[in-house]
Automatic annotation (TrEMBL), chain A:
SUPFAM superfamilies with a match to the protein in the record: MetI-like
Predominant location category: membrane
Cellular localisation: Cell inner membrane; Cell membrane
A biological process from GO: amino acid transport
Name of the protein in its database record: Amino acid ABC transporter membrane protein 2 (PAAT family)
Membrane topology listed for this record: Multi-pass membrane protein
Domain ABC transmembrane type-1: 17-205
InterPro entries: AA_ABC_transptr_permease_3TM, ArtM/GltK/GlnP/TcyL/YhdX-like, MetI-like, MetI-like_sf
One GO cellular component, as annotated: ATP-binding cassette (ABC) transporter complex
From TrEMBL, chain B:
Keyword Nucleotide-binding in record: no
Membrane-related topology note: Multi-pass membrane protein
Protein name per Swiss-Prot or TrEMBL: Glutamate/aspartate import permease protein GltK
Species for this entry: Hoeflea marina
Subcellular location: Cell inner membrane; Cell membrane
Entry function: Part of the ABC transporter complex GltIJKL involved in glutamate and aspartate uptake. Probably responsible for the translocation of the substrate across the membrane.
Subunit structure, as described in the record: The complex is composed of two ATP-binding proteins (GltL), two transmembrane proteins (GltJ and GltK) and a solute-binding protein (GltI).
Gene3D superfamilies the record matches: MetI-like
Cellular component terms (Gene Ontology): ATP-binding cassette (ABC) transporter complex
Pfam family, one: BPD_transp_1
CDD domains, sorted: TM_PBP2
GO molecular function: transmembrane transporter activity
Amino acid sequence: MEFELFHRYGPALLRGFGVTILCWVAGSIGGIVLGFAIACLYRWSWRPVRWLLQAYVELIRGTPFMIQLFILYYGGPYVGLVLSPVQAGILSFVIYGSPYFSEIFRSGFGSIPEGQIEAARCVGLGEAAILRRIVLPQMLVLITAPLTNFIIILSKETAILSVVTVPELLYETQTMAAETFTYVEPFLVLSLCYWLLVVLTSWLGQKVEHRVTRHLRRANA
Amino acid sequence: MDFSFKVILHNLPFLLAAAKWTLLISVAGMAISIFLGIFICAARISRAAWLRRAAAVYISFFRGVPLLVQLLVFFYMLPHVGIDLPAMAAAILAVGMCSAAYTAEILRGALQAIPAGQTEAADALGMSPVWLWRRILVPQALRLGMPSLVNELILLVKVSSLASVVGIGELTRVAQNITGQTYRPLEVYIAAAAIYFLINLVISQLGRVAERRLQLN
């Protein structure tokens, strides 16, 4: 093991890790926002719009991420969309994640008994208040675990961004491996970094879950 | 270089033959994922602390380690302890067991959303735990978790492409081979993507049907 190599390549790896985290966090947040918007639109709009949204979900969810990334990055310039690698990475992440997130939110909406929503309307709550005070708190119980799952999956999919030369963790690791002919040390560090992200995410997921299930524990006590 | 449908037509039989292996890995992996996922989920919320801890370790291992590494462990490391799996079995097991960790978490989230009063009522009626799970908890958890489960199963179809590293000629590997021979990546990969898309479309439609069937009214 030659860990002295990290004196030279450490900063590059750290920068790569930073880019990985940037793409992952920005992509997840964008995906969640877009996914939530899709799920809301799906719930409260006319049938033709729903068909369009469903077609979008099936199309994006059904095709491999790498191919979407290729089309956006190499095909984009043909329609005047010239993106830097990092921009393409974040945008493709937002698009790729949104159908998965929207399906998770749809399952959350489906878990709330209609009677509760009707009752809320009867006592004069507005639609926004119903969403915020009745639907969201209850659906978070159901969807926190799948949301955590998918955010973890996204963290590992960032590695694919290296194929369009986004200078993220895998890209920097491969560069180091190719220049020094060492493979074990760089990839060991790479695994540790991803593992750190996963542990952090599942820990955060547990915290959120603990908080959103408060009302259940109080009722059972 | 213009888009050539001839390349796609010429190579479609090879792609479809490879898609058979993708399908086999996916379907067998799904069966393991759901079946094992139910048990891990049950262990994760059981009253016995050691079961809970074992399930938590399982989940953090299979979610935390990249599937590629798991696959290599199944194929190259298990023979050292006397378990010699054929490549196909190793691929199916790795994909299924990894996915089971995610399935277990999805089901756990869904179980929490089922009102505790139902479990108490079943207890009060003298229902045995096995019946409670079979008749009350599992059907409802599957209904609530169905969209997330379909998400997971679709991801499973796509990660089956990793099976190529243990020498299985599944869809992605064959598409790579054809690209190597024809120098037509765009056409070949679009064709491969279309096949993945069709498989996933079937899964998501089945999921919608199941969701409707499991609906309360």
